Structure formats: structure tokens, C-alpha cells
């Protein structure tokens, strides 16, 4: 049977009343919130007969009741604790600070409950706003705009409501006032606020006679209230000034008792009047939406908000910094920049991604607490929170001083606000966090900064403002003082770390089998991870039970609604086309970035007409944008932070995949029947028997017409079975289709990981082919028809067994990316005529021997950005010839002015590192990655590296002088790896101020190294340290203790050090005891 509004809220109201009357000791730190929600509930019960959306209302009331019950239980436990303390220490005088500590413990515990209550107040207020203001709130919840509002201070007339709110708030917070009077003051404060909100939202400016009379009556009550409270407060203040009695002593005097008794009577009269006025507000100012019955979809919007807040609460409670390490470091670095101006940083991400959690981690961090003596956290308290409301919370003031009155010009108003801001921040360096993370429709941060930002322009003490917003358009526009940080879906490692941390139990070995599946199902979403842990914690920890939960996890769209909304409402068309391409890959498939970008370039996706940048740069930018929109998960990162693999979360592929089919972007791997399938443009073989194309590809007796493949532009196979069968089936299918005049416009043929595909001669007819992917196919020979594929842009032969390239490779003038397998010495033959690969940008894994065409061959390719060569002598007698080749390589490298990555290896005939010739690289301003294996003939090279260098790996370099005192001056170096025999000395030193950005440092097999010293102030950003097989290293450097940023130290096979580290005591252990993860292996 349907319940009335009063019946639903009455039980919890009774509990609140009991709590307020009998158990005030349990309200430490939350009394104001309890009284506020009591007022809201009583008003709702008085105003509404029937409960709109009863289920949602009951959920809100249930959440509130949980908090109230916790307070009641806490109160009982606290009384037992206090009684026990009195009994035990009855004969002992306890010091005062002992009881202060107990009170502090209670306050800290109630801080969490207070935050929950504030969120429930916010949610319930939005629920009431939907009922009262109908279309206005609905417009906000669905992304529309509100119109026809009065001035954002108090409405069409200045009735003094704002000043009354301030007065009652001041009265309620006076410690000398009795609890009964405080409760009256809080009730009236909240009632006046409700009236203020009502006047703000009313659309009509024309008042009837009834409305005018009502307004006059309200004005009279406002003036009476202001007089009563104002006189009472002034009289007490005056008595203090005159020194007749202290205010605290007055509390216990008979005269003061009468005074408080009188104020209580006056407040009761005002309470009756204001309750009557409030009940007649819609008679006075009729609202066209008063009887508005909000459509279900608006309550659904609120319900989604509640779901996100609950998930965020759970995430905040269970947060593990490991899952947000890189994000905390990145935002903290911006906050700690040495810039005296007031800077803003906006953390941007869809609801439920962890913005508030990240902001809280930063806010609570020791580095931030040390740097900012003052911090303030501002939460948006409702749909109609104005910029003045936010500013009042920042400055900690009440009243109407921040509102613009009729006499103010824009200039005079901003000048007045600037003076208030300057006075407040004059000698105080603040971190201000403005948390607007639950609002996906409003532009509070943007509007606040547009209206109030100029008031902060004079601040020069390093104050910072941190916003959390759901969309980029909600944040202040990017300028030299306003920055944004996009919070992404978690990587696979971060997801697993968060999952295991929240689960808080050891996962049985047999359950580790589900790790990959759990990661795929969660898709990097913290909200989904929290939800999954909640579901699993209610089941037995068995393979069967957990598998069942995983099967059911993403069957509804609700958990992913925020990201689906992001795609539907905000994703530009060119990004949607790129996103459609993910549908070609199996669900949860980790796609290598180099593969995805090359495929997009081949199809022209992402590249817009008129783009001056290269297609690869534009494609990579599109991928970063999709990750920024939180619709694509960055599953794995490289050491340098770049994207290694990515995927479309499995749930999004399920719920959004149909759109790709509706857009005719792809077909051929779905559950539709063969009669439904039309012309196929993109074909992907997932080896699923329910695919309509399965029989065509894998059964030679298929009678399906090949004509459906006439217009295919991309064919990708994911048949990774072992044996010869996959290669034969693919070959037969290609032969049948091409012979039937299909595939003639094919751009992409990607057979990565198909074992030894039998490529028919007919493939030579695919003259428009731009991408041929044969990685991990282990082909032994490149077919002769390759000489006809002159439009190829990408040829990927890595992890094949091909050792000789045909001479026709030189004719591929459009070739941009060539990947070869260095272990099989894939060698070029000299060009038969004058030709060069002028567009070549990537050449990886190429072999250079004594006869390789470097001069007048390879060295004519001058646009290379990514170069990887393996140089090797065939027989000892060819050393002179090989030295000449290495000099030619050196001259070629010197001419590559666009080079970004260089990987050079030099070996003798036995496969041992040999000479490496390189002159100064300081002129290569784009070079960011260097990997060198071989003895450096030019030992000064370490001092001739470009300032752009980010990653450096040296192996067998034979350096005699300590390289650290030279390399430490590279301003952007983040990764340094010194491998076997790269340094032949015994001592190394890292000096103060050196390696300012170094994050990863690895020493492997530096067998002669005995002593490594690190001065305080060196490597201030080091995060990851690994030392392996440095057999003679005696001590860890004491300077490691000063590097607080280190997250992980891995020490392997260090015989001299092992004994002093094994018991996790002693001097060496103290140097790394502060590190979160220490791994020591023998």
C-alpha cells in the first residue's frame, strides 16, 4: 500500500528528536547537520501529502537512518567507555589533556559521519527542489538552462532575509547560549534559507495584492527577528565591553536566565509566524510548477547522482594511494610550483572516476600540509549555489556583504570583493579546494572564476585553488595561470591494486585465475571496482560464486551511465569514428598503441582536412582525447609514461557497440543472422562460431556469396590458434575473395599473431593496401608479390623469421613505418636503381653488416624519427669494413634532424658488444630516447647529449669517468638505466641539485662499483630504484633517506649488502625504511 510522505519520514524524525533531547553527547561535531536535516524533513512532512517517487525517498531516508543509528550506538559505547574510565581512575586525578585526546578521537570519528550527513542534506534538498521548482531543476539536471530568475541575492525586494540567516547562525554558534535556544536559532536560520531559495527560484516578478501583503508580512517578521536577535546580541556584547561581568558568568546569573528565557519566548513567536508564512508561500506567489509531477527521468538523474556519491564515499573510505600515485604526483607538482601568483588547477573527469578522492589525498598529504599553512575545503551545497555562496565559504563569512546591491557598478563591486579577498589572503598562503564533482550539468567552477577570478589577481603569496569538475567546459578556461588535469580510468595495475586493497582479504591462489577477468570487467572504473568488491564480499570465496558475480556485473548500463552520457552528449564526430574502430577488437583486448595509430592512419581516421601536423601525431592526439574523455582505458604505461596499450572497457563495448552497427561502420562479428547482414565495410574474425562470417573464413565448403565482401576496406584476424590450420584457412579465404573481385579496395590487412598465414599470389592485386601487419606470424619469407604493393604505409614484420628484404622494398615511396626482427638479421639489399624511402619515419630492427647499403642507400632517408639498428660483424677479418660502416651510420644519424628515438647496438662476430661510433647529439633538439649497446669510442658523448633527453639506457659503454656528475645536468631526464659494463669505475656520486626530474634509476651488473654516494637534494623526484648484481657494492647511500618520493626499491643479488638488510634492521635498512615497497632477492 502506498505510504504518505509523513509516514515515510516519521520514524527517522522520531529517532532524531530522541537523539537531540536525550543524547546530545553523541552529536559532537554533527549537531548542526542533524538540526538542518530535521528541519528539512519536518517541512517536507508538513508540505506534501503524497510521496513522489516513493522508492527513491525511502532510499534517502534509509541512508539517513543508518547514520542516525550509528550515532545512537556510538553514544551508548561512549557512555560505557566514560563510566569505565571514571571507575578505574576514581582515585586518580587525570591530566586535562587526557580528556582532550578522547574528545579529539570522537571528533575525528564524527568527521566521516558529518560528511555523509552533508551529502544527504544536499541530496534531499535536490529532491525537494525537483518537487518545488519542477522544470527549472529538471533543466539543470538534464543539461538545460534556467531562465527568468530574480537577482541572486534575495529576490525582488531586499527583505533582510540574508542578514537574518547570518544573525541566527551567529546566535546558534554562541557557546554561552542554552541548547534549547541554539536549536530554535538553527531552525529559524534554515527556515529563512528555505524562503530565500523560494524567492530566488520564483519566476514571476509581478505580485498580486495577496502576494504584496504576504511580502509585507514577511518583511515585518524579518525586521522583528533582526531587532530581537540584534538587541539580545548587542546587550551581551556591551556588558562584556563595560566589564560588569564576563559573558560566561552571565550564563549562571538569574538576570541572564530571564534574558535567555525571554529570547526563547520571542523566538517561539517568530517560529510560529514564519511557519505560517512559509505554509502560504504558494498562495502568495503562485508557481506554474507547484502541482508539477516530475517525469521519472528527472528522479532517475538524481538516483544516478546518489549512486555515484555512494560509490565515491566507499572509494574515499577505502582509498589506496597506490592507485592514484601518478595523479597525486602530477597535481602536487603543479600546486608546489614556484610561482607567487594565484594559480588554479581543475581536476576533470566523469562522475565516479575518483576526483574527490584524488583531491582528498592531495589535501591530506604531508607535502601539501607543509607547504600550505592554511587549507580550506568547499563543497557545493546545492543546485543553485551561487559564486557568492562559494566565496563566503572560502572567506568564512556570513551576511550579505558579498552580494551586489543596486548601487554597485560591475567595477565597484569587483573592487569591493577584491579588497575583501586581499585582506583575507594578505599574509596567509592557502590551498582552497572547491569540490563540484557531483554536478555534471552546471558550470559552477567556470561561473565562479569568471565572476570572482579577477578578485584574486592581486594575490602574490603562492595561494592555489583546486577545482573538481565533471567536464572541461565546467572548468576555468586554460591560461598561463589556470591549468587542467584530466583524471583517467585506472590502468590494469592500478585497478588490481585498488581491488585488492578494498577487498582487504588474501585472495586464495585458485582465485588468482580470475585476475585477468576481474580487471577486464572493471574496465578501470573505480566505481565498478567498489561495486564488484561489495558484491563479492556478500558471496562465498569460491571460483563458481565469483564467476557468477562477474557474469552479472555489467549487464545493466547504470554503472557506466556517466561515460555513456559523455559519449552521447559531448564526443565530437571525428572522435566517434575513432571510437567505433575499437569495436573491431575483441572485448577487453589490450591494443598496442603503435598498432592502433597505424590502423587509424591507414583509414584516415582522426585526420582533418587542413591539419598541418603529421597523420601519426593527429591520431595519437585523438587517442589521448578519448582517454581524457574517460571512454578509453589506458591499460598499460611505458616507463616514460607514454601509452603502451589501451582498450575500450568491456561494458562500453557491450552497451555502445550497436551504435557502430547502426552507423554502418562495422559488421561481421555479431549475433545478427546472415539474412540481416548487408555490405560489409570492416571485417574482424574473432573465431566465434555464431559470427555470420565464421563459415566463410574457416570452412572451405561455404556457399555464402563473396559479393558481401566487395567493399571491405579493413580485414583483421584474431585467430591465434597453434598449428597450420589458421594460416591455411586465412589464405584460402583471401584467395576466394580476391578471385571473386572482392577486397579490391582493401586498405588494411592485419594478420598479427596468425601463425604462418599462407598468403596467396592474389594478395598482389591489393594495390590500395596501406597496412600489412604480419607481426608474430613467424613467416620465413616475404612473398614476391610485395613488389606490387606500392601504396603501403606500414609494413610490420617484427617477430617473423624473415632475414632478407627484397630489392623491391626501395620502390615503396609511400612507406612510413617499417618494423623488422633484429634477431633474424633482416637485411636490406642494395637498390638496383637510384631510389630512396623518402617518407620513412620508423625503421626498427634493421640489420647492418659489412655489405649493407648505408651510404647512398639508407642514409638517403632523412625524415626518420624512430631509428633502431643492429650492427654485427660476420667474421673477424671484416672488422675494418665494419668500422667503416659504423662511421657511415654515425654520419647518417648526425643528419637526422627530426630524430626522436635512437636505438643502436654493435656486436662482434661472437655476439659480444663491440665498438660504437657516435659524435655529439646535442643538436638533435627532438631526441628524447637513446638506447646504446656497445663500447663508446667517443667517451665524451655523455656530456654531448641533448637537453630534450627523457630516457637514456647505456650497456657495455666502457665509461671510465663517473657519468653521474655529467648526466645529472640533463634537465628533462626521467629514466636512467646503466647496464652491464656501462661504467668501469669504483665510485659514483650524485650531487646536490642533480637529476631534477629523474624518476627511474636502474643499475644492473656494475660489477666494479663499490661506493655510491648521494648528496641531500639530489634526485628529488626519484620514484623507482633497482640495483641488480652489483656484486661489490658495500653500502646504500645515506642520501636515499632524504628522498621522500621513492615508492619502490628492488635489490637483487647484492651479496655484501644482503646480510645487513635481511633482518630489516641496521644502518642500510634505515636508509630505505620509509619506502612503501622494498623487494630484496638473493
From TrEMBL:
Q: Which InterPro entries match?
A: Apaf_helical (IPR042197), Disease_R_plants (IPR044974), LRR_dom_sf (IPR032675), LRR_R13L4/SHOC2-like (IPR055414), NB-ARC (IPR002182), P-loop_NTPase (IPR027417), WH-like_DNA-bd_sf (IPR036388), WHD_DRP (IPR058922)
Record's keyword terms, sorted: Plant defense, Repeat
The UniProt record lists the keyword Repeat: yes
In this chain the Disease resistance R13L4/SHOC-2-like LRR domain maps to 738-1051
Gene3D superfamilies documented for this protein: 1.20.5.4130, Helical domain of apoptotic protease-activating factors (1.10.8.430), P-loop containing nucleotide triphosphate hydrolases (3.40.50.300), Ribonuclease Inhibitor (3.80.10.10), Winged helix-like DNA-binding domain superfamily/Winged helix DNA-binding domain (1.10.10.10)
Q: Where is the signal peptide?
A: none
Listed SUPFAM superfamilies: L domain-like, P-loop containing nucleoside triphosphate hydrolases
Q: Does the keyword Phosphoprotein apply?
A: no
The NB-ARC domain sits at 325-501
Disease resistance protein winged helix domain spans which residues?
584-647
Recorded superkingdom: Eukaryota
PANTHER family reported for this sequence: AAA+ ATPASE DOMAIN-CONTAINING PROTEIN, DISEASE RESISTANCE PROTEIN RP
Q: What is this protein called?
A: NB-ARC domain-containing protein
Organism listed in the record = Hevea brasiliensis
Q: What is the lineage of its organism?
A: Eukaryota, Viridiplantae, Streptophyta, Embryophyta, Tracheophyta
Amino acid at each position: 500500500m502506498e505510504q504518505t510522505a509523513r509516514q515515510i519520514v516519521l520514524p527517522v524524525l522520531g529517532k532524531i528528536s530522541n537523539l537531540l533531547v536525550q543524547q546530545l553527547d553523541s552529536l559532537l561535531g554533527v549537531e548542526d547537520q542533524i538540526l538542518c536535516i530535521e528541519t528539512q524533513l519536518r517541512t517536507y512532512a508538513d508540505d506534501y501529502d503524497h510521496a513522489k517517487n516513493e522508492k527513491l525517498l525511502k532510499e534517502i531516508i534509509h541512508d539517513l537512518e543508518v547514520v542516525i543509528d550509528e550515532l545512537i550506538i556510538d553514544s551508548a559505547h561512549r557512555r560505557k567507555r566514560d563510566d569505565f574510565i571514571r571507575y578505574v581512575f576514581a582515585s586518580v586525578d587525570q591530566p586535562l589533556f587526557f580528556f582532550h585526546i578522547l574528545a579529539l578521537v570522537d571528533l575525528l570519528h564524527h568527521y566521516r559521519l558529518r560528511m555523509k550527513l552533508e551529502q544527504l542534506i544536499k541530496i534531499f534538498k535536490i529532491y525537494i527542489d525537483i518537487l518545488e521548482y519542477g522544470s527549472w531543476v529538471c533543466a539543470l539536471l538534464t543539461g538545460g538552462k534556467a531562465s527568468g530568475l530574480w537577482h541572486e541575492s534575495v529576490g525582488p525586494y531586499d527583505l533582510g532575509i540574508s542578514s537574518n540567516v547570518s544573525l541566527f547562525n551567529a546566535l546558534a554558534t554562541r557557546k554561552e547560549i542554552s541548547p534549547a535556544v541554539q536549536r530554535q536559532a538553527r531552525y529559524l536560520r534554515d527556515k529563512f534559507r528555505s524562503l530565500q531559495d523560494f524567492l530566488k527560484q520564483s519566476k514571476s516578478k509581478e505580485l498580486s495584492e495577496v502576494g504584496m501583503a504576504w511580502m509585507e508580512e514577511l518583511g515585518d517578521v524579518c525586521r522583528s527577528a533582526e531587532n530581537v536577535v540584534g538587541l539580545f546580541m548587542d546587550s551581551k556584547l556591551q556588558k562584556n565591553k563595560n566589564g560588569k561581568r564576563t559573558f560566561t558568568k552571565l550564563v549562571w546569573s538569574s538576570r541572564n536566565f530571564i534574558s535567555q528565557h525571554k529570547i526563547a519566548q520571542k523566538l517561539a513567536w517568530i517560529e510560529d509566524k514564519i511557519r505560517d508564512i512559509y505554509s502560504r508561500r504558494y498562495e502568495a506567489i503562485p508557481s506554474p510548477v507547484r502541482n508539477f509531477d516530475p517525469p521519472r527521468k528527472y528522479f532517475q538523474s538524481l538516483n544516478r547522482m546518489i549512486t555515484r556519491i555512494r560509490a565515491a564515499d566507499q572509494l574515499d573510505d577505502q582509498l589506496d594511494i597506490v592507485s592514484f600515485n601518478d595523479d597525486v604526483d602530477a597535481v602536487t607538482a603543479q600546486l608546489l610550483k614556484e610561482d607567487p601568483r594565484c594559480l588554479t588547477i581543475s581536476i576533470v573527469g566523469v562522475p565516479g572516476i575518483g576526483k574527490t578522492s584524488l583531491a582528498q589525498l592531495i589535501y591530506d598529504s604531508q607535502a601539501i600540509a607543509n607547504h600550505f599553512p592554511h587549507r580550506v575545503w568547499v563543497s557545493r551545497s546545492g543546485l543553485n549555489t551561487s559564486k557568492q555562496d562559494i566565496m563566503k565559504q572560502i572567506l568564512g563569512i556570513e551576511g550579505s556583504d558579498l552580494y551586489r546591491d543596486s548601487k554597485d557598478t560591475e567595477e565597484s563591486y569587483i573592487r569591493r570583493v577584491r579588497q575583501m579577498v586581499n585582506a583575507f589572503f594578505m599574509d596567509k598562503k592557502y590551498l582552497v579546494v572547491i569540490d563540484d564533482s557531483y554536478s555534471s550539468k552546471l558550470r559552477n567552477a567556470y561561473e565562479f572564476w569568471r565572476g570572482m577570478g579577477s578578485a584574486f589577481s592581486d594575490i602574490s603569496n603562492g595561494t592555489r585553488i583546486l577545482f573538481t569538475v565533471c567536464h572541461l567546459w565546467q572548468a576555468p578556461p586554460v591560461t598561463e595561470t589556470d591549468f587542467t588535469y584530466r583524471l583517467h580510468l585506472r590502468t590494469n595495475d592500478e585497478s588490481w591494486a585498488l581491488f585488492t586493497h578494498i577487498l582487504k582479504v588474501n585472495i586464495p591462489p585458485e582465485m588468482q585465475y580470475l585476475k585477468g577477468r576481474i580487471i577486464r570487467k572493471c574496465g578501470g572504473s573505480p566505481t565498478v571496482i567498489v561495486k564488484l568488491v561489495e558484491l563479492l564480499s556478500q558471496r562465498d570465496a569460491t571460483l563458481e560464486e565469483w564467476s557468477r558475480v562477474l557474469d552479472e556485473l555489467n549487464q545493466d548500463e547504470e554503472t557506466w551511465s556517466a561515460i555513456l552520457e559523455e559519449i552521447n552528449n559531448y564526443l565530437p564526430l571525428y572522435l566517434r569514428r575513432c571510437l567505433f574502430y575499437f569495436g573491431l577488437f575483441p572485448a577487453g583486448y589490450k591494443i598496442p598503441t603503435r598498432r592502433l595509430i597505424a590502423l587509424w592512419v591507414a583509414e584516415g581516421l582522426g585526420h582533418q582536412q587542413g591539419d598541418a601536423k603529421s597523420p601519426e601525431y593527429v591520431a595519437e592526439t585523438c587517442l589521448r582525447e578519448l582517454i581524457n574523455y574517460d571512454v578509453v582505458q589506458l591499460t598499460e604505461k611505458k616507463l616514460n609514461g607514454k601509452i603502451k596499450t589501451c582498450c575500450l572497457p568491456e561494458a562500453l563495448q557491450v552497451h555502445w557497440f550497436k551504435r557502430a552497427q547502426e552507423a554502418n561502420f562495422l559488421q561481421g562479428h555479431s549475433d545478427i543472422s546472415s539474412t540481416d547482414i548487408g555490405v560489409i565495410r570492416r571485417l574482424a574474425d574473432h573465431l566465434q562460431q555464431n559470427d555470420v562470417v565464421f563459415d566463410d573464413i574457416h570452412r572451405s565448403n561455404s556457399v555464402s556469396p563473396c559479393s558481401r565482401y566487395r567493399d571491405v576496406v579493413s580485414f583483421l584476424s584474431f585467430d591465434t590458434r597453434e598449428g597450420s590450420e589458421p594460416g591455411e584457412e586465412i589464405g584460402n579465404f583471401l584467395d576466394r575473395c580476391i578471385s571473386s573481385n572482392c577486397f579490391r579496395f582493401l586498405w588494411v590487412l592485419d594478420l598479427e599473431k596468425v601463425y604462418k598465414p599462407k598468403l596467396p599470389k592474389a594478395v598482389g592485386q591489393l594495390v590500395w593496401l596501406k597496412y600489412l601487419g604480419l607481426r608474430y606470424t613467424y613467416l620465413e619469407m616475404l612473398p614476391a608479390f610485395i613488389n606490387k604493393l606500392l601504396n603501403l604505409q606500414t609494413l610490420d614484420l617484427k617477430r617473423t623469421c624473415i632475414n632478407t628484404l627484397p630489392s623491391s622494398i626501395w620502390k615503396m615511396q609511400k612507406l612510413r613505418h617499417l618494423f623488422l626482427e633484429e634477431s633474424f638479421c633482416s637485411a636490406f639489399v642494395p637498390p638496383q636503381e637510384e631510389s630512396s624511402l623518402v617518407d620513412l619515419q620508423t625503421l626498427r630492427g634493421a640489420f647492418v653488416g659489412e655489405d649493407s647499403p648505408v651510404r647512398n642507400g639508407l642514409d638517403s632517408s632523412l625524415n626518420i624519427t624512430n631509428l633502431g639498428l643492429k650492427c654485427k660483424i660476420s667474421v673477424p677479418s671484416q672488422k675494418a669494413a665494419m668500422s667503416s660502416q659504423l662511421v657511415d651510420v654515425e654520419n647518417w644519424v648526425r643528419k637526422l634532424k627530426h630524430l626522436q628515438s635512437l636505438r643502436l647496438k654493435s656486436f662482434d662476430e661472437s655476439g659480444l658488444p663491440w665498438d660504437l661510433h657516435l659524435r655529439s647529439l646535442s643538436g638533435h633538439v627532438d631526441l628524447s630516447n637513446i638506447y646504446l649497446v656497445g663500447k663508446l669510442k667517443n667517451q665524451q658523448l655523455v656530456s654531448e647529449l641533448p637537453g630534450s633527453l627523457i630516457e637514456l639506457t647505456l650497456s657495455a659503454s666502457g665509461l671510465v669517468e663517473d657519468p653521474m656528475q655529467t648526466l645529472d645536468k640533463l634537465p628533462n631526464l626521467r629514466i636512467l638505466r646503466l647496464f652491464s659494463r656501462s661504467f668501469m669505475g669504483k665510485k659514483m656520486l650524485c650531487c646536490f641539485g642533480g637529476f631534477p626530474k629523474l624518476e627511474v634509476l636502474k643499475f644492473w651488473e656494475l660489477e666494479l662499483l663499490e661506493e655510491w654516494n648521494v648528496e641531500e637534494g639530489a634526485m628529488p623526484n626519484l620514484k623507482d630504484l633497482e640495483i641488480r648484481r652489483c656484486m661489490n657494492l658495500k653500502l646504500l647511500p645515506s642520501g636515499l633517506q632524504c628522498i621522500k618520493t621513492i615508492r619502490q626499491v628492488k635489490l637483487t643479488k647484492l651479496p655484501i649488502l644482503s646480510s645487513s638488510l635481511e633482518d630489516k634492521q641496521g644502518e642500510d635498512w634505515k636508509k630505505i625504511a620509509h619506502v612503501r615497497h622494498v623487494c630484496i632477492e638473493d
